Amino acid sequence: MLFRSEAFPRPRGARLLLQLDAAAKRLRRFAAIQAMWAADGWRIACEPEFRFSGVRPFAGTSEDVPFKGSVDRIDERRGEDGRMEYRLIDYKTWDRRQGAAKRILAGGAAEERHAARLRLPTTPPDEKGRRKRFLSVQLPLYARCLELAAPDIFLSPGGESRITDACYLLLGRSDADAGVLFSRFPQGPFAAGGKDAPALLDLAPLALETARAAVARIRANIFWPPGPSETWKYDVKDFLVFSPERDFPRGTAWRDRQEAKLDALAREADGALPGGEVAP
């Protein structure tokens, strides 16, 4: 369950009652999606969470660090070969379905420049030459971590992944805003992200490389520049007066050091510096 009503104290205040009512309404909108999944043979294997810790998806590289996390929900069904297959699900209570895909995969000229600056991988160009980059690598990274944490469950004897799907379940504020994002399987009227939305796991190598690049920057103590999509507002807005660019204009000592480290890391990625050496 997403919440347990018995966990809240009694008597309950008006604010809590309103929140519980809003959560119940969003869950009722999910009922039709759940019925569709059940008709396709999917059953809940693990809810509310599947936790893992100490998993090292980048073992053998300079970005070898342990990861921990929890998956909101895992569904299972028996595949055509008679073996179990699994779907990873992450609940999102975003109000609107429109534009939801851009919170995971973002494109545009500014995003492409940002990806080039940070040496981030991007999707292959579409028919108009546009590329996208990952803003959130959550589910593809979780899938790899689960394969390493429980290979007897999530890998076949031949080493092939039994995680065949990963998607975001959008519990929007209206019936029209409920949907399923980035699933590999048809979702009928609940498919979000448009007809050309990719299957998330098809882009798993791209997501993992994005995560590895993030680890490299963190280990080098690089936290600049902010992304053009302003996702920084979800993380550091309480520490800023205006915005990263206005609070740390060019010429600020901290920003200059960050820029120098980023340039050094880029040269290392291009083979100009020996591994592990960054600007002081």
Output the keywords:
two-stranded antiparallel sheet; alpha+beta; 280 residues; 6-stranded mixed sheet; 18% strand
Chain-averaged pLDDT: 86
Q: Low-confidence segments, ≥5 residues, pLDDT <50?
A: 272-280
What topology, given as strand order, has the largest sheet? 1-4-5-8-9-10
Q: Major beta sheet, specifics?
A: 6 strands, mixed
Q: Beta-sheet strand percentage?
A: 15-25%
Distance between the termini: 49 Å
- Alpha-beta content class: alpha+beta
Number of helices: 7
Account of the protein in words:
The chain has 280 residues and is α+β, with helices and mostly antiparallel strands. It is 32% helix and 18% strand. It has helices at residues 14-39, 109-118, 138-149, 151-154, 204-219, 244-247, 253-269; strands at 43-46, 50-55, 67-71, 73-78, 84-92, 105-107, 132-134, 163-170, 179-181, 191-192. It has a 6-stranded mixed β-sheet with strand order 1-4-5-8-9-10, sandwiched between helices. A two-stranded antiparallel ribbon has the order 2-3. The longest helix has 26 residues, at 14-39.
